[in-house]
Design goal:
Blueprint (H helix, E strand, L loop, with lengths): L2 H20 L1 H23 L4 H54 L2 H4 L4 H34 L1 H30 L4 H42 L5 H13 L5 H14 L4 H30 L3 H15 L3 H18 L9
Amino acid sequence: MTVKNLILLLILLAGIVIFVFYSIPLLLALLTAIMLEPVVKLFIRLFKGRRLLAVTATFILYLAGLGIFSYWLTTTLVIQVIEFITVLPSYSVHLFEVAENTFYEMENFYASLPPEVVRTLEEGLVGLKDYGVETAKNLTSGILGLITAIPGLLIYFIIYVVAVFLFSLDLPRLYAEFLNLFTTAAREKVELVFSQLSRATVGFFRAQIILSVVTYALALIGLMILDVEYAVILALLIVIVDILPILGTGSFLVPWAAYSFFINNNDHLAFGLLIMFGVITIVRRIIEPKILGSSLGISALAALVSLYIGFQLLGFIGLIVGPAIVIIYEALRSAGFIKIKIDF
């Protein structure tokens, strides 16, 4: 590859990255339109082929669902978030006060140490306490800043909503224009691959939504049984942490249980959180291969194997990459791009 071609390739990649970054609402709208297409096709059969009415009915139902979710978000979640972040600095102060008291209770241990070492340790502890309080305040300010940015996000939301309707209305035409980029001989194969990948993508997000709903329900029920305050927001935080790569429900519940046991001396809450972590983990591991297999169009065994190998090779990111490789392989094999025959 010449230097000129390399520069052009870098410029192209930079352009794609910039386009994707500034087109996030539009790309999300396109993905939403693809996910809503099965519902649109159902209404098309009901309205005898009139796509405009089918898209309108689907769009109204989608907006109704968004409205119900937004109402719940603003009336329940936001209230608990505000209450939670107002007490977060006090929790941080309490945590470091307990640590400080524990430190001073170890006088017999460091009494024999040189005064300079003791003074350095005390100064370090005070600095750590101030850092924790400042971090909690910054987190509070960040969340409040996110809330104040809602008017700006509203513009992106309006663009997203309008784009969902327009993409859904023109999806068949966009799909036909995409196929026209290929020759007649390659079009059938590309159409088959694209169809399977689209179905698998929609199935993947549907599976993640189902798993997140199950996790949220189990976490909310567990927190309510344990009589924990802010159960709604904490259950949502557990789901968010569970979705993020590398992290998981254990990275949230296990430290919380340790804090409750060793610092707050709340054995009931600590063991309850550990039991809840075990229940969520077991339930997810049981239903995840089946849900992914049925949603992605691959067998439960293939889903389980791809999840395990992906996790062993790439960690939590492999839980996504593993099934994706199986899906792409199945799509290419079904379209005839991959042909494996063993002969002796």
